[in-house]
Amino acid sequence: MDRNRKWVPGFGAVLLTLLSHMTSALEVPLDPKVLEGLPQPPTITLQSPKDYIFDPRENIVIHCEAKGKPHPSFSWTRNGTHFDVEKDPKVLMKPGSGTLVIDISGEKAEAYEGTYQCTAHNEHGTAVSNSIVIRQSRSPLWSKERNEAIVVQMGVSLVLQCRPPAGLPPPVIFWMDNNFQRLQLDKRVSQALNGDLYFSNVLPDDTRSDYICYARFPHTQTIQQKQPISVTVLDNSPEGERRPGFMTPLGTTSTKMVLRGETLELECVADGLPTPEISWQKDGGELPSSRMSFYNFKKTLKVSDVNEADGGDYRCTATNNLGTAHHVIKVTVKAAPFWVSAPRNLILAPNETGILTCRVSGEPKPKISWFVNGVSIENAPEDHRRKVDDDTVILSSVQSGSSAVYQCNASNEFGYLMANAFVNVLAEPPRVLTPPNRVYQVITNNPALLHCASFGSPIPIVTWFKDSQTSVKNGDPYVIHENGTLEIHVAQPLNSGKYTCIATNILGIKENHVYLEVKEPTRILKQPEYKVVQRGMSAVFECKVKHDPSLIPAMTWLKDDGELSRDERFEVDVDSLTINDVADEDEGTYTCIMNTTLDQDSASAMLTVVDATPPPAIVYEKPDPPTDLELTDQTERSVQLTWIAGDEHNSPTQKFLIQYEDLLHQPGVWINLTDVAGTSTTAQLNLSPYVYYSFRVLSENRVGYSQPSQPSNQYRTNPAAPDQNPSAVQGIGTQPGNLVISWTSLSGFQANGPSLEYKVQWRQKDVDDHWSSKNVANVSQFVVSGTPTYVPYEIKVQALNDYGSGPEPGIVIGYSGEDLPLSAPDSVQVMVHNSTLAEVHWEPVSFPSVRGKLQGYKVYYQRERSLHETEEDAERKEQVLTFSGNRSEGRLPGLQPYSLYNLTIRVLNNKGEGPPSTSKTFETPEGVPGPPSFLNVVNLSLDSLSLEWGPPMNNNGRLAGYTLKYQPVNTTNDLGPVKIMMFMANETTITMGNLNSSMLYKFHLSAKTIKGSGPIITKEAFTVMDTTVPSRQVDIATQGWFIGLMCAIALLILVLLIVCFIKRNKGGKYPVKEKEDAHQDPEIQPMKEDDGTFGEYSDTEDHKPLKGSRTPSNGTVRRDESDDSLVDYGEGGDGQFNEDGSFIGQYSGKKEKDTHEGNESSEAPSPVNAMNSFV
């Protein structure tokens, strides 16, 4: 097909005819019941960026995810030819996905550089990804060079060149010295955008030999340095003052090209003495202050988010006290292709007509190419139902089986855009998605919305019936919206009843019933009244309410907008509040609020507390109404009102309230206009045009307001143009493809004249130059259809009438309707911290795929089953955690140990949730078990009893056994020694003997897993009391066994005395024998204060340890060594000291190779090791 063909006569008429018969795009709901079984061509949901620079130390991961029904298969091309993934053992394609993981360990990473493109295919079409250019990050070495020393005179300009090696991506440049301290930069010494160091003029302080340029390469996180540069500044022939000149850029003019949306960076570095000041301006225009910023002491100007208006001549001016210099940079703005309106998916019924549009812009103008199922449309099989004209494809009378995926490619010299849009031909009978028999309740005179969401192909036509008989038509009081919703603007009781919606297309019919109940409003019939009560008396506020009998009311009383204090003096009845024994602190405003599930009403009154016996008795009453109202000084916009005040009744008038009645727009309604001080009886009133005024005045004193005065004479003002525009203007999309512009309408009083209308204007922000507009009347909103999804619009609403327009309205930014997110989070990983806590990580979706305002992510997870084979699985309950904002991780608390969990993640915007991520399962480790289910004591006897127990309700792992601790409790409640018994997991009973009779025992039982013991269950029990009477008394001294025992003890004592006598004769004499006999505990032996050795106990003859003395822990005795050497207490002299000088080595004895050590260890145990043994 000729892609450059012109628009031929008659084709426009054909297109208009097709568009007039074209069916609007059908939205497929995300209800799984609806989606199940619906075929769908592939849609790319995730892909890597077009330019992918990888780190050679890590695997290459090229993302390609797609959805469709059936699930698509994936293939790849590299450099335009088929890439056989299965033949390369280093390349892995993730199951169920097109994502490639390339293991480049041990390989030349350059071999995998190139241009990759992913294809997703099923029987309904083929979608393709962007062309993804894969390049390896590079951090080349600095070329070897020898820098000559620089010698300059003071005052001259100087440039130190950096010229780093070209890396991918480019390196970050900075200058430091040999001590890794950054060089101090100022308006005299600065670093240019290319990394060179510029001196506008040099000073002797600039002399140094270590000017070093560093280049940091971001991907590989490596830093390389240039050889140091030496600079010497002489002052024997200094340079004099001079006018500014430019060091960069050179000359008087230069050019700069920047792409739309990027950041414009302009730089001017000047020399001169004194150091020049730099300023910037734009010839013939103003600098964009909201997007502009200065850097590098105003030598660099940056403009972010460049648009076409930023092109032009930018002038930088360098100034010192000797003159100025100018340089003009001519900026040209080009643009890579960008979307005006990307093609959208179409769902069509057989014989319907659809249109795909691919609207792009760019500079130069992009060339648009169409593809179908990844094949150029010129090479695709010819289809007479398909017509292509530049950015439009029209599909006429589509047939079943003609589903396909179309690709639009727009390119110019600066880049390209590529989008997939499928055309899905479906024939589906209607389905009603609104739940049946739903009951809607509203209050009388409020709007009612009855929903009938439906799906079908062709799009079903929705009709409504009331009470299964009366057909509901558009018009008062009913409005049937495009989505099938029935709206009743002002619901009345007669609108209650059963409503039936019927969805119909050529393939079938489906009906659904809903019910509307219109309730009576809640109203306060008798309001509480102002009370003046003496201290100590009672105050009663009445609040009688009428409400719909089917609604449950709830009465609440407030004092000064806060809750009533909990005081028994306050008595709240059904329709009243009584305050007994009134005190000064009870003074205030009391409000009764009647709430129902649908509405509420409230009323307030004030309580004033006065003295119980005021002397003399003064009666305070409301003032009398003012009289003799008169209008003077009458003009178009003002009038003077005067009156005579009424009797004050012992309470001075605090103010006068002036009200007006608009007899033209709101007859019978009095509106507060202004108030004046109680000392004044004149007011200058500002008026509005086109109002029939009548005024009245009320007096107010401490007791309250007077009755209103008699109305004044009528005063009419002439019409005029509106003084104001509607307020609360906003633009919010309620559904994809629309923008609802709403505002608060002007009242008739504010209209200033007849025939009030509103001029609604809108345009897409940063895209459209001209405003679209529409004049509307008697409405407070306007719906713009056919908008792109979630894009900003500029909005204005202006009031106008027969006498002119209101002031120029301000611009409000609104957003078109959001759509459900397209993508699901990827790379879901779960880190299990412990048996009850896990942390989930995911890769956030791309912002364009959110298709709305990102609200956060929802994590759905549920316990699938226990990992314990014998444990019964509880009912599975899905849990949901929402993480707000652009998060990529979250924690899942409260998990059940030793369980298998399953989770998915969805992205969330204001429209709803996106598709779920790939399901991820994880296991929680074992935890400690719960307590045994029961512990019973049975079969009590004189000296034994039996225990029975049940396994824990929650094992939380593999049960390892049970631990039983028990101890006796005497009559003074003192606990005896604890005894511990261990049991296997299958043991649940034990009979314990050899117990004391008539003794209370306390039993503590816990279950355990490999993670430890769980909670303890406790039981107490008495053994049976011994009630038997001994038959005879036995004299123990006459028993043979007792006599033999005493003889053995006497013989043992004799042997010990003989051994001690021999030992004493063999050992040396020492003067502290008595102390030794008196103090057998080695822990309390005396020590010398100077060196810590034991006093008077050392025996230098045979070096044997004495009784009651301490020896080193390795069993040896130190000899002939200094007591002050700390090395002797360590291992090989490796003792260490803390920062405060304290020794932290191991306090072990020094090893001695002596024959008397026997089998004892030759190495002393470390105190640290000893501590570890208790952990």
From TrEMBL:
<dbReference type="Pfam" id="PF13927">
    <property type="entry name" value="Ig_3"/>
</dbReference>
<feature type="domain" description="Ig-like">
    <location>
        <begin position="140"/>
        <end position="230"/>
    </location>
</feature>
<keyword id="KW-0325">Glycoprotein</keyword>
<dbReference type="GO" id="GO:0007411">
    <property type="term" value="P:axon guidance"/>
</dbReference>
<dbReference type="InterPro" id="IPR003598">
    <property type="entry name" value="Ig_sub2"/>
</dbReference>
<feature type="region of interest" description="Disordered">
    <location>
        <begin position="704"/>
        <end position="726"/>
    </location>
</feature>
<keyword id="KW-1015">Disulfide bond</keyword>
<keyword id="KW-1003">Cell membrane</keyword>
<dbReference type="Pfam" id="PF13882">
    <property type="entry name" value="Bravo_FIGEY"/>
</dbReference>
<keyword id="KW-0732">Signal</keyword>
<dbReference type="GO" id="GO:0030424">
    <property type="term" value="C:axon"/>
</dbReference>
<feature type="domain" description="Fibronectin type-III">
    <location>
        <begin position="931"/>
        <end position="1027"/>
    </location>
</feature>
<feature type="domain" description="Ig-like">
    <location>
        <begin position="521"/>
        <end position="608"/>
    </location>
</feature>
<keyword id="KW-0812">Transmembrane</keyword>
<protein>
    <submittedName>
        <fullName>Neuronal cell adhesion molecule a isoform X10</fullName>
    </submittedName>
</protein>
<dbReference type="InterPro" id="IPR003599">
    <property type="entry name" value="Ig_sub"/>
</dbReference>
<feature type="signal peptide">
    <location>
        <begin position="1"/>
        <end position="25"/>
    </location>
</feature>
<feature type="domain" description="Ig-like">
    <location>
        <begin position="42"/>
        <end position="129"/>
    </location>
</feature>
<dbReference type="InterPro" id="IPR007110">
    <property type="entry name" value="Ig-like_dom"/>
</dbReference>
<feature type="transmembrane region" description="Helical">
    <location>
        <begin position="1041"/>
        <end position="1062"/>
    </location>
</feature>
<feature type="domain" description="Fibronectin type-III">
    <location>
        <begin position="722"/>
        <end position="819"/>
    </location>
</feature>
<dbReference type="InterPro" id="IPR026966">
    <property type="entry name" value="Neurofascin/L1/NrCAM_C"/>
</dbReference>
<keyword id="KW-0472">Membrane</keyword>
<dbReference type="InterPro" id="IPR013783">
    <property type="entry name" value="Ig-like_fold"/>
</dbReference>
<dbReference type="InterPro" id="IPR003961">
    <property type="entry name" value="FN3_dom"/>
</dbReference>
<dbReference type="GO" id="GO:0098632">
    <property type="term" value="F:cell-cell adhesion mediator activity"/>
</dbReference>
<keyword id="KW-0393">Immunoglobulin domain</keyword>
<dbReference type="InterPro" id="IPR013098">
    <property type="entry name" value="Ig_I-set"/>
</dbReference>
<feature type="domain" description="Fibronectin type-III">
    <location>
        <begin position="824"/>
        <end position="927"/>
    </location>
</feature>
<feature type="compositionally biased region" description="Polar residues">
    <location>
        <begin position="704"/>
        <end position="717"/>
    </location>
</feature>
<dbReference type="GO" id="GO:0005886">
    <property type="term" value="C:plasma membrane"/>
</dbReference>
<feature type="domain" description="Ig-like">
    <location>
        <begin position="244"/>
        <end position="332"/>
    </location>
</feature>
<feature type="compositionally biased region" description="Polar residues">
    <location>
        <begin position="1161"/>
        <end position="1175"/>
    </location>
</feature>
<feature type="domain" description="Ig-like">
    <location>
        <begin position="430"/>
        <end position="505"/>
    </location>
</feature>
<feature type="domain" description="Ig-like">
    <location>
        <begin position="337"/>
        <end position="424"/>
    </location>
</feature>
<feature type="compositionally biased region" description="Basic and acidic residues">
    <location>
        <begin position="1149"/>
        <end position="1159"/>
    </location>
</feature>
<feature type="domain" description="Fibronectin type-III">
    <location>
        <begin position="625"/>
        <end position="720"/>
    </location>
</feature>
<dbReference type="Pfam" id="PF00041">
    <property type="entry name" value="fn3"/>
</dbReference>
<dbReference type="InterPro" id="IPR036116">
    <property type="entry name" value="FN3_sf"/>
</dbReference>
<dbReference type="Pfam" id="PF07679">
    <property type="entry name" value="I-set"/>
</dbReference>
<feature type="region of interest" description="Disordered">
    <location>
        <begin position="1071"/>
        <end position="1175"/>
    </location>
</feature>
<feature type="compositionally biased region" description="Basic and acidic residues">
    <location>
        <begin position="1071"/>
        <end position="1091"/>
    </location>
</feature>
